From TrEMBL:
EC number: 2.4.1.-
Pfam families, sorted: UDPGT (PF00201)
CDD domains for the chain: GT1_Gtf-like (cd03784)
Name listed for the protein in its UniProt record: Glycosyltransferase
Signal sequence coordinates: none
Keyword Glycosyltransferase: yes
GO molecular function: quercetin 3-O-glucosyltransferase activity; quercetin 7-O-glucosyltransferase activity
Keyword Heme: no
Keyword annotations: Glycosyltransferase, Transferase
Length: 473
């Protein structure tokens, strides 16, 4: 009897920043000849348009399960914890069934799951190897892994009257630059028994027991942090940037079938009117502004950013998602001077193809919340950043952007128009801006080398595929 072909089931958390890179990996594995099942919630499935032609790629199929929330629940950016909690309560049984009952498919050889959903590790008890996908980068993961040391050393919780700028001593390799304010946001607690801190610390420790760990990055970007991580998680695959690998594979196989390669297939409707607007701008003259898919702004914060952008010397393209504002009521009442300035030098859209925008010659800088996908996309495109991290790993990413890679500035914990204007100008003009541009161009080249034939990401991808094939023997 012929051996069962390797069959991988991927299950991301129902959040764009998690679905998008895992979908790219799914397509890469499928193009490399593995059978792939991509499991999502019914809501995400519909949002991806998964019934409309995405199942056409042979060997690639979508499955979906309910998330337990009512159909009319908005599931908007600010409510992501509710969605994950409901899914965790609702889906373990359904997920377990999908792992063991094959529904006419080949049995699952290996599951690639999202570390934020610890229940997905159940595969191990079923003797199905489970690999974790970390949607954040190695730099933040190393700080997550050090949480127990930070607690033991008394560096978390933060004492009363603490100095946020004091350097942290318990994250090896980062002693010289990581301040309290740069630790992941869940460390900003009053008690070490804080339930979110404890839940994240234990989910992170569990990650070390998986068969392996996947990162969407190139190994040279975070080499020092990866070396630390590998002392605890020896089987680590750095297979990114997945965008670039996918494009290269699409080209070499002549394949346009299967799930599309855009940064966020179908999440919000892309507004392409900004492309002719960008075409009409001079090279590197535009600040692209986007806070990813989860960040929520208060109206005062929105106005501070808006004034800062209107008053800086540059044009701007700003993604204002339909659920970006905490309360959409009153969002339409924009002061006259802002409306005028926007007409003259701005372009507002609800959603774009971010990869395409970052790759446009008119874009000179990216005002970002420092989500890992956005960070990797900006580095690949060679665009320097102004960071306003919102939560979780973004606090660490923005510190690496400003202090380690020196490809941007970090306005963490401040949100006033003067700082926005000053920092935008710092990244857009002058000697420091030139230096940041040179640095990010260097990193972009380094990332390209990782994904070129024979580069480290290709080698890691080959190893991952070989390891999965070996599991099916
Ligand atoms: C989250 C976390 O913030 C991030 O740090 C974590 O590691 C993964 O999940 P999110 O907040 O949405 O994700 O940010 P980010 O990781 O940057 O992902 C946003 C994605 O949306 C990017 O791939 C970006 O290209 C895409 N996007 C954003 C668009 O395609 N169009 C837009 O208009 C805006």
């Amino acid at each position: 009897m012929a051996a069962a072909p390797p069959h991988v089931l991927l299950f991301p958390a129902p959040l764009l920043g998690h679905v998008s890179p895992m979908l790219k990996l799914a397509k890469v594995l499928s193009l490399r000849g593995l059978l792939v099942t991509f499991l999502t919630t019914e809501h995400v499935h519909r949002r991806l348009g998964a019934d409309e032609g995405l199942n056409c790629h042979p060997g690639f199929s979508f499955r979906s399960i309910p998330d337990g929330l009512p159909a009319d629940h908005p599931r908007s950016g600010g409510q992501f914890m509710e969605v994950i909690t409901s899914l965790a309560a609702q889906s373990p049984e359904r997920y377990r069934d999908l792992l063991v009952s094959h529904h006419g498919q080949w049995p699952v050889t290996c599951a690639i799951v999202d570390w934020v959903m610890p229940f997905t590790a159940v595969g191990k008890r079923l003797e199905i190897p489970v690999i974790a996908f970390r949607t954040g980068g190695p730099c933040s993961f190393w700080t997550y892994l050090c949480t127990p040391r930070l607690i033991e050393a008394g560096e978390i919780p933060f004492p009363v009257g603490y100095d946020m700028d004091e350097l942290v001593r318990s994250v090896p390799g980062m002693e010289g630059f990581l301040r309290r304010r740069d630790l992941p946001s869940f460390c900003r607690v009053k008690e070490s028994s804080d339930p979110i801190l404890q839940a994240i610390a234990s989910a992170t420790q569990r990650t070390t027991h998986y068969r392996g760990l996947i990162f969407n990055t190139g190994e040279t970007l975070d080499a020092a942090e990866l070396a630390h991580i590998m002392s605890t998680c020896p089987v680590t695959y750095t297979v990114g940037p997945l965008d670039t690998i996918l494009c290269a594979l699409d080209r070499s196989t002549g394949s346009a079938a299967g799930p599309p390669s855009s940064s966020s297939p179908g999440w919000w409707r892309e507004d392409r009117t900004c492309m002719p607007w960008l075409d009409a701008q001079s090279p590197k003259s535009v600040v692209y502004v986007s806070f990813g898919s989860l960040t929520v702004l208060s109206r005062p914060q929105l106005l501070e950013f808006w004034h800062g952008l209107a008053n800086c010397g540059h044009r701007f393209l700003w993604v204002i998602r339909p659920d970006l504002l905490e309360e959409m009521d009153g969002a339409g009442d924009i002061p006259v001077e802002l409306a005028e300035a926007t007409k003259e030098k701005g372009c507002l859209v609800e959603w774009v193809d971010q990869r395409e925008v970052l790759g446009h010659p008119a874009v000179g800088a990216f005002l970002t919340h420092s989500g890992w996908n956005s960070t990797i996309e900006a580095i690949s495109a060679g665009v320097p950043m102004i960071c306003w991290p919102f939560f979780f790993d973004q606090m660490v990413n923005s510190r690496f952007i400003s202090e380690v890679w020196r490809i941007g500035v970090d306005m963490k914990d401040t949100c006033d128009r003067a700082t926005v204007g000053r920092m935008v100008n710092e990244v857009m003009e002058g000697e420091r801006a030139d230096e940041m541009r040179r640095n990010v161009a260097g990193l972009s080249e380094m990332m390209r080398e990782c994904v070129d034939e024979g580069g480290s990401s290709r080698i890691h991808l080959d190893q991952l595929i070989e390891d999965i094939r070996a599991m099916s023997l």
